């Protein structure tokens, strides 16, 4: 965890969820954080934090961080909660459809950011999906994945809440050109239940949820004359507030 209530001696603090003692971890190898004394799990959705988790949380240092959310006698610690009340869940470990659905029902207003590098095969499979997928629209860019798809698309096809896939700094190729900067790939469903994929810049994603800036989406510029643009099918909205 990134924050604790400072009340104990010897660099200790109190967990904002269970109120038990936590210790400050301030080494030279990992991002500084707090840890429970012993192997206590005060959040039933808890998973071991990786450097990927902590790197993402550090981007929300000033505006929204891990905080307690309680409903109907249950409590959980959201990874990030914005000033507007939107929860951003950072998911690295595998998760069952049942648990995923239970979190979406619990938080209600939330989105997922998923570590796309968790499994080695996902990166190459997803690269092929966006390289050979059918472009539906150029500005902003939306594409339809290849029929074969990729395993991560099957595991993370949207249910109630939007899903963003993070593949780090990998350079993707779309419509024959390299994507100019790191992006998050947004998974959405059209009105017929078909999967479509868009992209937003990683920094733009953070700025959108910290400062309210417009969410910049990836676009395709074509030099071919007389090219007929594809039309984007209507896309289902997942949240009443916000723009995906």
Q: Could you characterize the architecture of this molecule?
A:
The protein has 244 residues and is an alpha+beta fold. The protein folds into two domains: 1-42, no CATH class; 43-211, no CATH class. It contains five helices and 16 strands. The protein has helices spanning 51-58, 97-107, 120-132, 151-155, 202-211, and strands at residues 5-8, 12-14, 21-25, 33-36, 67-71, 74-78, 80-81, 87-91, 110-115, 134-137, 142-144, 163-166, 173-174, 177-178, 183-189, 195-201. A six-stranded mixed sheet has the order 7-8-9-12-15-16. The protein has a four-stranded antiparallel sheet with strand order 1-2-3-4, with no helix packed on it. The protein has a two-stranded antiparallel sheet with strand order 5-6. β15 and β16 form a beta hairpin. The longest helix is centred in the middle third of the chain and has 13 residues, at 120-132. The chain is globular.
